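Bench notes, afternoon.
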Amino acid sequence: ILESAAGVATFTATLTAAVSPIVAPVTVNLGVSGTADLDSDYSLSALQVVFPAGTATGATRTVTLTAVNDNETEGPETATVTIASVTNATIGAPSSQSVTITDDGSQPSVALTPAPASPILESAAGVATFTATLTAAVSPIVAPVTVNLGVSGTADLNSDYTLSALQVVFPAGTATAATQTVTLTAVDDRATEGDETATVTIASVTNATIGAPSSQSVTITDDSLDPTVSLSFVGGVSTLAENGGTVTVRATLSAATTRDVTVNLVFSGTADQGAGADYTVSSSQITILAGATTGDVTITGVNDNCAEVDETIQVGIGSATNATPAGGLVTATIVDDDIPPSVLLDLNGGPATIFENNGGVGNPTQATVRAFITVPVCMDVVVELAFGGTAEIGTDYTLAVFDNRIFIPAGATEGTLDMPAIDDLAVDGAVCETAVISIASVVNGTGVGNSTTFNIVDVQSLPAVDLLVNAAAVPVNVNEVAPGNTAAITAVIAAPVCFDITVTLAFAGTATGPGSAPGDDYDLDTTTLVITAGNTTSNTATLTAVDDGALNDGGETVDITINTVTNGTVGAAAPQITIND
C-alpha cells in the first residue's frame, strides 16, 4: 500500500466451527510486528475482535490498517498482524498476514549529470569529472544516500585510466541539487591502441532511487604515434627461379603495438601475377599480431615454358591499419630458365634487287624484310632495325610504316616490314646501291647483328649494251659451207650490274634470214641475249650460214642490231657479217 495516499489494508479473521452456531463467545487478540512501527508508520482499527455466542461457522471479523505519511525517506517497510491468542477457540492457519508500505514520492533520486567533457587526451593525463546530483522532494534528506558506481567500456580501469572513487555519499541533512564528484584520469600507457571509451554507471543506491541519466561516458583519445612498417626480403634473397623458386617478403614494425597491424600489399613490375602468369603469392595481406613485429608472405615462381627475359616483381604497401607505411618498393627478379629465341632476317622470298621505278616492264620496286624465329614463343618479340649500305634510307628507299621495328606477336614466328624504293629522277652515279638491314636490338630474344641485303637500281644510270661478233667489234667473214660457216654474237656491258639485262635482236643486210624458209642464207639458234646479274657478257647467239646451192651469190651481208633492251640502253650494233659464196 502507498504511504503517501494513506493506503489501507484489511486483515480478516475467519471462524471455522464444527458445531455451528458456537455456544460460547470467541475472543481473538492480535499482535503486530515488522519494520514498520504502529502509530508512526500505520494505525490499526483494533487489536481485538469477538465472535459472539450463536455465531455461525464461516463468519468473519475485520481489522483495518491505514498507512501514515511521515514525510521521511525510509524505503519500503512491512507491517505483520498475527493472532496472538484466542479464548474458546484454537489458532488456525494461517495465523499471520503482512503488508508492505511503500514510501513513494518522498525518496530522493540520484543521477549522473551533467555530462563530463569529452574527449580527453591520453598523453596529457586528461581528466574527466563525473557528477552525481541529488534530487529530493523532502529537503534536506533525513537519511544518508550512498551511491555505488560501476565502470565499463573499451578502456580498462587502472591500465587505461584511474577513478578517484567508486562510491560517493550524500549525508543526512544534504539539500536537494547537491553534487558529489568522481575524477577520471587517463593513463598514458605509451601503447598504440586507438581511441577507447570509459563509462561510469550508478550501480546501486541506498535510501534513494536511481535517476536518469544513470551513466555517462568519456572518450580517451590515443595520441600515441603508430609504428612504421616497411618491407624487405628475408635473408636478403630477392631472386627466385622460374621453376617453383620462392622468396619471402617480410613486413617489419618499428616497434611492437598492442593492436594487430594489417598490411595490404600491391604488386607491379614486368612479371604478371595470378594463375597461369609468372608467379603466385601466398597472400596479398600481411597481419602482424599484437605484440609481434614481423609478418611474412611467400612469392613462388611459375614455370611457363616460355623463353623470355628475366622479369621483375615490385612489392609495395598499398595501405596499413594501425601502422604508418615507410620505405619504398622492394624488387624481386624471376630468373628465366628457358632459352630466348634467336631472330634472323631475310627478304621473305622476294626479290633481292628492286628498281626506282618498274621501267614499264614490271620490275619490282619494293623489298620486304622478314624477321623470323624457328619456334613460336609466348610473348611479343620486338626487333629494332639498323640501316646501312650504300643506299640511304629516306633518299633511295623508305619504310612503308613510320617505324623501324618489326613485331613478331606472341604465338607467331615472323613479322615483316615493306621497304619501297624512291624514284629520285637523278643520276646517282652507281647503277646499283646496296641496302644492308641489320638487327640493332631485340626485346625478348637475341640476334643482334644478323642482317639481310637488297639492291636498289638507279634507272637513270642503266648501262649501254653493245653487240660483238666473235668477241670483237670488227667485221667478220663466214663461209657458206663448213668449215668456218658460223659466227658468235654476244651482248656486252662495260661493268657488271646487280640485275639481268635482256636484249632482243633485229636483222638487216643483203642476206636473207634468219629462219628455215627455203632460200634463207643463214639461221640463228636464238634471237634473245641475257646478261645475268654480276656478269658483263651475255649468252651466245650462233649464226650459221646456209648453203643455198646457188652459184655466184657473191658476198652477202648480215647487219645485226638491238631490237629491244630491258634494264639497259642501246649501245653499238654488231659489226657486219659477210657470208662468202
